Automatic annotation (TrEMBL):
Any GO molecular function: 5-methyltetrahydropteroyltriglutamate-homocysteine S-methyltransferase activity
Residue ranges annotated for the Cobalamin-independent methionine synthase MetE N-terminal domain, each copy included: 4-316
Protein name per Swiss-Prot or TrEMBL: 5-methyltetrahydropteroyltriglutamate--homocysteine S-methyltransferase
Superkingdom of source: Eukaryota
Residues reported in the UniProt entry to bind Zn(2+) 1: H651, C653, E675, C736
Annotated binding of L-methionine, by residue: I440, G441, S442, E493, D608
Length: 768
């Protein structure tokens, strides 16, 4: 019998129940016991959904209160000392690492949080010490979750991040020099102990995720797989059978380190179906293949016929007993259920499949290959109809968009003059001081803003009333920025539910949902709009609000847009048209918006591209260069329609741009703001080495945490930056937008930031 399996299930719940519970706990509105009870209810509900869908192998320990890597950090005794010395209870210590803690005399910032591979999910980075020791906690979550499911009558497959990936995805703490992979020998005993405990609890199999195998790995990391997995193999049946799981790419380039002695190997056959043959021939003689044929990263209905063909190929090579049907990755990256979408056009809804529906898909595929297609004829026929409907629908194709794309000329990618001419012109018209201060666009999205928007969406208030409300919000943030004495204002983005969804809702070619939430980090979720057809802009999207903001501001007002790559990456993209085509369509739509903003008197325009980095193919090489070429071109196409005097900003919430700095430079943005507060300022050296002449605002404080940075801390950051950047290049801004923050902490942090900027402005006054 061919089994069906899922690598991980979304944990938020059908109505973002986990988000609501954690935020209520943080706000002191519910007790810790209430929070843990809600988490338990959700786990049970999700296991039962999968069981009901007919999934044979159901995961456990895929659930997390904030992040799954963070649970492992804590359970392995790898919480950095600054979190463990305050006597916080384990749950609060866990949240302190995730989001910082500033209460009752304790003041610790959060650990660094970064993108999980090329997804829009963020994990907490293991942050390790030179004298790091690991010690398994008395009651590891992997074991208690397994036992919880078992008590409910479900024998699950616990999920762990593998030792090599855990270390490779980690880093040395500030001022520490340890190379995480060198800690492998110390870490393995903790895995051995945990695996032994899982076996004792009754776990027959365990899923050990080693997704780093899809990367180009340093020799030392590559070499680490062998000793680790040999050690596990030597334990025989003292530990559960291991499913060695990789996803988000192919493993062909690392195939020689694939362990032979594991029970099963999982590969992503949605992203890289072509790796099937190589992987099959590299498997140990008894190893099972877990074939990831149902997409864990997108919402399109699986083409069941095609998936069955792939699984059949594997069966022909390995036999039915050595193949498992699986999702390509965890379903964490997909929304909970399509059943919640009451407003979607039925024609379009028929093309989608969310987590609950994907659970049914894996089980149908497994049944089809076990018992024959006749056993699931009805499902296969309905599926073929949906696939055909999408392939032939008129809604996917807009000839006017294609015509416009065919008329793009080379000059449309270039600003009129080079940067020195432009900046001189901009300095003349904008008149900004040294160390200009600004923010990244959004100000706190208060409960009141969300309530009013919700009322407007439900028709409980009129468009006029909502517009008045938004204008009042803009007035308030302009006034606050005046009081703070910032230099370049923003309108605060109060009208935006999200920086991508907002644009998706205003563009033709997109569908959007009411409940399709996906976890982004911690309790934060996004509702990615879905690209269903050719994209165009039927009307201006942001001009009204920006124009109003300009009209009430005494200082330059930045217009805020989300760039083409970010719109694309944080949407669910089409899988029937190359992403470069979709990005170009978005770029043309945004180009019109940029030109319209300038015509409306907005002379500083920021086009955010935080997702440019995550779109980078995971391995270096030709594919990466090709991506960067079309990504950079899309950005340039979107911003190059303006005069020299209009200042183009771009923003990136990551600092790891060393490996593609040439692309960042090629964007030719006049000012870049980048996340930097939690990274080593040494990373800025690349700007010196590459003789980068344009302006840069490396973030001076972290916005993911409610913690208020002191003026001195900010000055220290600026000092570090000035080692690498010239004073006349440097802008002073936070790491990213402030939408997730409360007003009190926002004002307090910005007061400190502006004071720090003024200090340096005075210090360097004579050099201007
Ligand atoms: C910058 N980031 C973003 C990423 N991806 C995006 N698509 N957008 C981003 O901004 N990726 C990288 C980072 C990740 N960071 C974040 C930061 C913040 C959030 C976030 O705040 N998410 C919100 C949801 C935002 C939203 O869509 N809000 C809507 C709906 C609000 C809502 O819940 N309404 C209630 C009713 C009102 C009420 O009673 O409160 C409801 O519908 O039930 C809106 O504002 O209208 C979050 O809360 O998680 C995400 C990623
Ligand atoms: N302008 C956006 C950028 C987030 S990456 C904001 O400020 O929220
Ligand atoms: Zn950002």
């Amino acid at each position: 019998m061919v089994q069906s399996s899922i690598l991980g299930f979304p944990r938020m719940g059908v109505n973002r129940d986990l988000k609501k519970a954690t935020e209520a706990y943080w706000a002191g509105k519910i007790s810790q016991a209430d929070l843990l009870a809600e988490a338990k209810r959700l786990r049970l509900e999700h296991w039962n959904i999968q069981k009901k869908a007919g999934v044979d192998v159901i995961p456990s320990n895929d659930f997390a209160l904030y992040d799954q890597v963070l649970h492992q950090i804590q359970d392995f005794g790898a919480a950095p000392p600054k979190y463990t010395s305050h006597g916080l209870n384990p749950v609060d210590e866990y949240f302190a690492m995730g989001r910082g803690h500033q209460k009752n005399g304790i003041d610790v910032p959060s650990l660094e949080m970064v993108k999980w591979f090329d997804s829009n999910y963020h994990y907490v980075k293991p942050t390790l010490q030179d004298n790091q020791e690991f010690k398994l906690t008395a009651n590891p979550k992997a074991v208690s979750d397994f036992e919880e499911a078992k008590a409910a009558g479900i024998i699950t497959r616990p999920v762990l991040i593998g030792p090599v990936s855990f270390l490779h995805l980690g880093k040395a703490d500030r001022d520490q020099t340890v190379q995480p992979i060198d800690l492998l020998e110390k870490l393995i005993p903790v895995y051995v102990e945990l695996l032994t405990k899982l076996k004792a609890a009754g776990a027959e199999t365990v899923q050990i995720d080693e997704p780093t195998l899809v990367y180009d790995l340093p020799a030392k990391t590559k070499a680490a797989f062998k000793p680790a997995y040999e050690k596990f193999a030597a334990l025989g049946d003292k530990i559960p059978k291991i499913v060695f799981a990789t996803y988000f790419g192919d493993i062909v380039h690392n195939i020689e380190v694939l362990p032979k002695d594991v029970y099963a190997v999982h590969v992503d056959l949605v992203r890289n179906p072509e790796q099937l043959d190589t992987v099959i021939s590299a498997l140990g003689s008894k190893t099972v293949l877990s074939a990831g044929v149902v997409d864990g990263r997108n919402i399109w209905k699986t083409n069941l016929k095609r998936a069955i063909e792939t699984v059949e190929t594997a069966i022909q090579n390995l036999g039915k007993d050595r193949v498992i049907v699986a999702t390509s990755s965890s379903l964490l990256h997909t929304p909970h259920t399509l059943a919640s979408e009451k407003k979607l056009d039925p024609e379009i809804a028929d093309w989608f499949s969310f987590a609950c529906e994907k659970a049914v898909e894996v089980s149908v595929i497994a049944k089809a290959v076990t018992e024959g297609p006749a056993s699931v004829r009805e499902q296969l026929e309905a599926n073929a109809k949906s696939i055909q409907s999408r392939a032939t629908s008129k809604r996917t194709n807009d000839p006017a968009v294609k015509t416009r794309q065919s008329k793009i000329t080379p000059d449309m990618y270039n600003r009129r003059s080079e940067f020195p001419t432009r900046i001189a012109e901009q300095q003349r018209t904008l008149g900004l001081p040294l160390f200009p201060t600004t923010t990244i666009g959004s100000f706190p999205q208060t409960k009141e803003i969300r309530i009013q928007r919700n009322k407007f969406t439900k028709g409980e208030i009129t468009a006029g009333e909502y517009e008045k409300f938004i204008e009042k919000e803009i007035q308030d943030v302009v006034k606050i920025q005046e009081e703070l004495d910032l230099d370049v204002y923003v309108h605060g983005e109060p009208e935006r539910n999200d920086m991508v969804q907002y644009f998706g809702e205003r563009l033709d070619g997109y569908a959007f949902t009411t409940h399709a939430w996906v976890q982004s980090y911690g309790s934060r979720c996004v509702r990615p709009p879905i690209v269903v057809g050719d994209i165009s802009r039927p009307a201006p999207m942001t001009v009204k609000e920006s124009k109003y903001a300009v009209s009430i501001s005494k200082k330059p007002m930045k217009g805020m847009l989300t760039g083409p790559i970010t719109c694309l990456r944080w949407s669910f993209p089409r899988d029937d048209v190359h992403q470069s085509v979709q990005a170009e369509q978005l770029a043309l739509a945004l180009r019109d918006e940029v030109v319209d903003l300038e015509a409306a008197g907005v002379y500083v325009i920021q086009v955010d591209e935080p997702a440019l980095r995550e779109g980078l193919p995971l391995r270096a090489g030709k594919e990466r260069e090709a991506y960067l070429k079309w990504a950079v071109e899309s950005f340039r196409l979107s911003v190059s329609g303006v005069k020299d005097s209009t200042q183009i900003h771009s923003h990136f919430c990551y600092s790891e741009f060393q490996d593609f700095f040439h692309a960042i430079a090629a964007l030719d943005a006049d000012v870049l703001s980048i996340e930097n507060s939690k990274s080593d300022a040494k990373l800025l050296k690349v700007f010196v080495d590459e003789v980068y002449p344009r302006h840069i605002g490396p973030g001076v404080y972290d916005i993911h945490s409610p913690r208020v940075p002191s003026e001195q801390e900010i000055k220290d950051r600026i000092d570090e930056m000035l080692v690498y950047l010239k004073p006349e290049q440097l802008w002073i801004n936070p790491d990213c937008g402030l939408k997730t923050r409360q007003w009190a902490e926002t004002k307090a942090a910005l007061i400190n930031m502006v004071n720090a900027a003024k200090f340096y402005r005075q210090k360097y006054a004579s050099t201007k």
